[in-house]
Amino acid sequence: MPKFKPHAGTGKRVKVTGSGKIVREQAGKRHLLEGKASKVTRRMTGTVVVAKADTKRVKKLLGR
């Protein structure tokens, strides 16, 4: 039986909190920021909880 290898890329992008929630960074804050309003870039700071529809898939990728 082969070993299960968690998805390395997903592990770098998401973090599991102590209570078991999966949090991620907001997308769209890496480049082309001059064209985006300051209000938009401020809204994209910080982390958000992964959508309920995606949690099962992300947990599978993480091996949880």
Automatic annotation (TrEMBL):
Keyword Ribonucleoprotein: yes
GO BP: any one term: translation
Keywords (A to Z) from UniProt: Ribonucleoprotein, Ribosomal protein
Pfam family, one: Ribosomal_L35p
Gene Ontology molecular function terms on file: structural constituent of ribosome
Source domain of life: Bacteria
Keyword Ribonucleoprotein applies: yes
GO CC terms of this entry: cytosolic large ribosomal subunit
Family designation: Belongs to the bacterial ribosomal protein bL35 family.
Name this polypeptide is given: Large ribosomal subunit protein bL35
